[in-house]
Amino acid sequence: MRIVVTGGEGFIGRNLRVRLNELQYRDVVSLDRDDSAEARRSALANAEFVFHLAGINRPTDASEFDHGNRASIAEVCAELSATGRTVPVAYMSSTQAALDNPYGVSKRAGERELERYARETGAPIFLYRLTNVFGKWCRPNYNSAVATFCYNLTHGLPVTIHDPASPLHLVYVDAVVESMIGLLHSAPRTGPVEVEPVYATTVGDVVALLRDFVASRETHVVPRVGSGFVRALYATYLSYIPPADFSYELKRHGDARGVFAEMLKTSDSGQFSFFTAHPQVTRGGHYHHTKNEKFLVVKGRARFRFKHIVLGDVHEIEVADEEARVVEAVPGWAHDITNIGREELVVMLWTNEVFDPEKPDTVAAPLSS
Fold first, then answer.
1. Across-strand partners of 293?
2. Is 68 helix (H, G, I), strand (E, B) or coil?
3. Number of CB atoms found within 10 A of residue 178's CB
4. Catalytic (active site) residue 237
5. Would you say the C-alpha torsion 339, 341, 345, 347 has a positive or negative sign?
6. Which residues of 212-360 form beta strands (DSSP E)?
7. Backbone phi, then psi, for 170, in 5-degree steps?
8. With 189 labelled, which of 171, 262, 291, 360 sits at a CA distance of 20 to 30 A?
């Protein structure tokens, strides 16, 4: 299937082309403003689907709007009409097409060109009037506040907010791409395409979240980034981090037993840490009333000892790194861990709550040898 993507080197175009490649679409042609008229004709002559993503929104002169947003789609439609085939076209318009400004007027004119093409040829067309699209590879300091905020905060630059309460309606680029991919399999139709979800937020809330992401490298506290808008914004923020900053150090607490370091804390699901122990060293020797811990030996051999703080019952578990066995520290049982191997012991630890020095829920209770 010959798929032509105009504006293929742009923000949405790059994301679309990557996804098409993942889905094994091999005959994908990308066209950009530097390509010749002959290259455009050659690509469109055998096109079976066209995504027209090319456009202009910040020209040096307002007269460029017409060429970038109306004439460009008119040229594509003319080339497709000349083939005598009904080639489907998806057109990337904007919510501003409903506004009376130079950009909006030019986008609406582009829509009319596409509608004329559909009437004259019977080809299916798909109109996307998108609001602010955000995601990886969006150009900062251009037409996306989110991209600018992400870039500045990941490069140590100031962020200026004129009105924190200013509303933002955002669409994630992955949702846009999946919608466009769906067109390749849908029954032919004509009309507007809605992309969901649209995230309603404010400029101030977006910047506050981004600042939390930045601070997480120091506090180790990461917001709830597993779903919805925060997931998408976190992925976007990370995509702007320069390679020199892909890694960062943790604070290590060392003593004669080994080292301990906190890796990650969550707002409501505890924290992740790791510790080491030299051969024959024992760590722990305490119990919890409510706190729960999960241990995973990732290097070496360990003996876990447990003692019920009321009944005095005892239990031991020996674990080696090749087992990938999780050991639970159960409330009401004192516990410790001893390195019974010949090499350094390394243990990953999850606790269901972030450590609070004011309420540690950790009571010393050494187990007898």
1. 329, 351
2. helix
3. 13
4. no
5. negative
6. 221-222, 252-254, 259-266, 271-277, 282-287, 293-299, 301-308, 314-320, 326-329, 333-339, 345-351
7. -120, 145
8. 171
- Strands 259-266 and 221-222, by their bridges, are parallel
Tell me what pLDDT residue 189 has. 72
* Ordered alpha helix ranges (H), the chain: 11-22, 37-45, 64-66, 72-82, 102-121, 145-154, 173-183, 203-219, 228-239
Q: What type of residue sits at position 174?
A: D
CB 229 within 8 A of CB 170: yes
Among 25, 91, 103, 142, the one annotated catalytic: 103
Strands 314-320, 259-266: pairing is unpaired
Contact between 296 and 326 (Cβ < 8 Å): yes
Length of the chain in terms of residues written = 369
Q: Is the pLDDT of residue 217 over 90?
A: yes
Other Cβ atoms closer than 10 A to 66: 18
- The answer to whether residues 207 and 146 touch, using CB atoms and an 8 Å cutoff, is no
Q: What is the pLDDT of residue 302?
A: 98
Q: What is the pLDDT of residue 186?
A: 76
Q: Which pTM value belongs to this model?
A: 0.90
Per mean pLDDT, which range of 68-72, 149-153, 233-237, 355-359 is the poorest?
A: 68-72
Q: What is the dihedral of CA 48, 52, 53, 59, to 10 degrees?
A: 150
CA dihedral angle for residue 57, residue 58, residue 61, residue 64, rounded to 10 degrees = -30
